[in-house]
Write a structure and sequence with these properties.
The chain contains 2 helices and no strands. By secondary structure, the protein is mainly α. Helix 1 runs antiparallel to helix 2.
């Protein structure tokens, strides 16, 4: 049973890593586009929304990885 938990935790950590990389990549892209005066502002807004969604997903996954402690 502990093997299943370890495997699931590993999958969650891997997913968390992927989300963080995607979030960082979007951040970089948004910064680059923000400096370009010819960029489509709608595209930038969509990327920012996507970045916020990724941040929410990261926060949710991080909270799932924190073990529950009984007071």
């Amino acid at each position: 049973m502990t093997e299943k938990i370890d495997t699931e935790s590993f999958k969650q950590l891997e997913r968390l890593r992927e989300l963080r990389v995607s979030h960082r990549d979007l951040d970089y892209l948004i910064d680059r586009l923000h400096d370009d005066p010819m960029v489509d502002q709608l595209r930038v807004r969509r990327l920012k929304k996507r970045k916020l969604l990724l941040k929410d997903m990261i926060m949710t996954l991080e909270s799932e990885l924190i073990p529950d402690l009984d007071a």
